[in-house]
What we know:
With 587 residues, the chain is α+β, with helices and mostly antiparallel strands. It folds into 4 domains: 7-106, Zinc finger, CHC2-typedomain (DNA Primase, Chain A), CATH 3.90.580; 109-237, DNA primase DNAg catalytic core, N-terminal domain (Alpha-Beta Complex), CATH 3.90.980.10; 246-427, Dna Topoisomerase Vi A Subunit, Chain: A, domain 2, CATH 3.40.1360; 450-582, DNAb Helicase, Chain A (Orthogonal Bundle), CATH 1.10.860. The chain is built from 27 helices and 16 strands. The protein has a 5-stranded antiparallel beta sheet. Strands 13-12-14-15-16 form a 5-stranded mixed beta sheet, sandwiched between helices. A 4-stranded antiparallel beta sheet has the order 6-9-10-11, covered by helices on one side. Helix 18 packs antiparallel against helix 19 and helix 21 crosses helix 26 (530-566). The longest helix is centred in the last third of the chain and has 37 residues, at 530-566. It is globular, with a radius of gyration of 31 Å. Residues 101-107 and 432-444 have low confidence and may be disordered.
Amino acid sequence: MPGRIPDNTLEDILGRVDIVEMIASYIPLKRAGRNFKACCPFHHEKTASFMVSPDRQIYHCFGCGESGNAFKFLMRHERMEFIEAVQALARKAGVILPENKSVDPRLTSLTTQLYKVNELSTLFYESNLSSSQSIKAKEYLLNRKIKDSTIKEFKIGLAQDSWDSLINYLRSKSINLSLLDKSGLIINKDGGGYYDRFRNRIIFPIFDIKGRVLGFGARVMDNSLPKYVNSPETEVYTKGRHLYGLNLAKDAIRDSDSAVIVEGYLDFIMPYQEGLKNIVASLGTALTSEQARLLKRYTSNIIMVYDGDSAGELATLRSLDIFIEEEMSVRVVSLPKGLDPDSFVRSYGISSFKEKIADAKSLFEYKLGILKLRFNPKDAEGKAKIAKGMLETINKLKNAVLKSEYIKMLAEELDTKEEALLQEVGKIKVDRVNPQFSQPQRTRSVNINPTERLLVKLMLEETDLIHQVKGNLLPSDFKDERVSRIISTMFELLEQGKSIAPQSLMNHVDDQDLSQLLGESMFMPENLSQDHKEKVFLDCIQRLKSEKIKQRKQFLHDEIKTAQHLGDEIKLNRLMEEFHELIKKRG
């Protein structure tokens, strides 16, 4: 809700920001008539159902029901509070927000506080690496050939060999333990109290696309285990939503139209330091749909680099099907056994690493090679197992021509008939790579009287019609409580002389069902001429009036029967008089 910011300021910001341009900076949009469409960024889907209207400056997803204006999109996509979204778009639009000195600092959103804690912690870890106690850490980084300029660029730091040095530092900055606990930087002691999560380790801050610190990875400086300790998921950090280094690599990825994916911090840092800039790291987790869509903003061409120890694992390869489902091209590089990208570049140089990338095999070729090593292609059962493994990937292709060509290639490779493979591919059930996204959280379409929904749409399109509705109907005349609330809000804004444009109205709606209703109403098919629209509008009002009369008649009918039963002549006469008046109105 708008809160303390004047409505005219909010409208000024919305008037200067193009929602299509803003959303297109996050996800690829395609023209669809007067609107734009995309796969929804808020749930996983195969068929695009997320619509953006440049005319109305709102969006709506017919899959999950999400609707809103530019503020709402930022709030959902960037996990911002309303005030943060307003501030971000005000800066973009060049609008100066009125000063408000009465805002209580304690009301600052949790996400903002966590970003602050992470930033302070980053500075603390950086200062530790610059201190006289960091000789061992500096020697470690020097031996790994990490340059000083790289240390500064990635804000690499050091967690001291201490149980509470970070706790003490942050408490001196007035950060309370409750907030520290939410940040994941400290751990509860069994007997009460807390201790630092990261101790005696090299610290790698993890940044989001905007360069904000989300969490940390911490590596030991010897061969002890566990090698890495990472931040847990928090209000601002979800592992599957981010890629390490993307904040620095995004421009190079866009320019080269390709992204190289490695697994760990140092596997990213060493190639990047030596000149390979279109590279990101998955941080060792299974790739997710959200990460694929994140990369798809910049390129559709992916090169996955596996070290010699993980290459050939079919479970690992299956995770690459996520890119196939997103209609992205995937190639694979397998390094020699015992080498990862970090050690390969240190041993053989960046030029040799780039050659490996240039010679990357297609996912089809790479996976087929692994399956042939695992199963005998001359043996009937082995051939069937190879076919099954390959068809699982091929079946995820959305392009029918590509699917047909790959089946033809597979038939040639296995010396079998295409018809047999086509029969087998028809048996395969398409499963999502990531179970958590297997069933989109679809929201039912808001079930509302069609007349009421159409009237809301017409009022949103033509502000003058709101005056006519106000002169003929009350909010209570609408049977659906949600429509009644929207109509009531429209009337209030009209009386206050405020904008009732869809993107402005969204600022006054804080209920998911109401947002969904507005979004669905605005994206209803438009087949009405202006003259026909006026006739339909008047017909809607007449229908609602008739429905109101019909309901009142039914109520009076029931009351008349009760009055007759009780012998209440006075009440009976009054009810009969009103009933006959309604009959005259032919409701």
